[in-house]
Amino acid sequence: MEHFEVIVIGGGSAGLAASIALGRSRRSVLVIDEGQPRNAPAQHAHNVLGQEGISPLELLERGRTEAQEYGVRIINAAVDSLTGSLNDGFAVRVADREFSAERIVLATGLKDELPQIPGLEQAWGTSAIHCAYCHGWEVRDQEIVVIGCGPMSAHQAMMFQQLSSKLTFVDHDPSELNEEGTNLLAKLGIPVVRQSIAQLAFDQTGQLESVKLENNEVLTAQSVIVASRMNANADLYLELGGALTEHPLGTFIKVNETGATDIPGVYAVGNASNLGAMVMAAAASGTLAGAAINSELLNAKLANA
Q1: 71-83 b/e (C-beta count within 10 Å ≥ 16 → b)
Q2: Sign of the CA dihedral with 136 first, then 43, 212, and 197 last
Q3: What domains are there in the chain, each with its CATH number?
Q4: pLDDT digit string, tens, across residues 237-284
Q5: What is the SS3 assignment for 64?
Q6: How deeply is 133 buried, as exposed, middle or buried, from its count of CB atoms within 10 A (0-12, 13-18, 19+)?
Q7: What's the pLDDT band for 305 if we cut at 50, 70, 90?
Q8: Which H or E run contains 285?
Q9: How far apart are CA 267 and CA 240, in angstroms?
Q10: Nearest Cα to Cα of residue 65 among 122, 16, 104
Q11: Beta strands 192-193 and 167-170: pairing type?
């Protein structure tokens, strides 16, 4: 069994940042990555200081190169199992290989669960978006439909109204629009259509052009705003005996300020522990966790000296 001081599961911005912090401290680090970043459908990443508009995949490729310059080993694979404890060490199985580690970093991200609306998944990450800070500037002044489907939908409408006055709120799931949200939309003067959405329609180039309602009414739209339910990819954490924390927007792994979970020796970074973390926030959480783990390993060595 090949041993590393730290194994990072997930090679997004959070996982790579953690590995770089550790690699620069001359720790032996293995990153295991499935190669399925959450933001892969997006053409550009925004609010990335010094790298504005970079392709998400290019950003990760650069991060991989940087990590490898500090001796970090990266393999492309899915983790089959994670077992062990801080006292006994951790074992990570990948197909027919097994690796051991003293510390684990879970940078496994989250899964977006979308409403079952035909065409929505096709548009996700391009003309169907959720974050005003990630993609809002790019849809400014467009004709926008906000899909009312979650507790954040009215808030999303408020955020995107800053960017376009041509905005309509469609109350797709009335059970999710409470009195507070109704009052907010009224106060903002945002038109509300009380119909479910039948499907999204696209032109011949694949660009979104309209939203068809259940009553056959058609709303012109260049973009739709949708609040996904966000659930941490946490099967491995659950295997270790961990528990997820519930949030109105989904589930996540609870951590302290350094990324340490309730399981000793296991850290969680990025969207696995912060559902709202954008690229730079996710990377920052990885760097903090990497520094904390290095200090923890140093202190453990001194304690055993």
Answers
A1: ebbbeeeebeebe
A2: negative
A3: 2-111+229-303 (3.50.50.60), 115-226 (3.50.50.60)
A4: 999 999 999 999 999 999 999 999 999 999 999 999 999 999 999 999
A5: helix
A6: exposed
A7: confident
A8: helix 279-303
A9: 12
A10: 16
A11: parallel
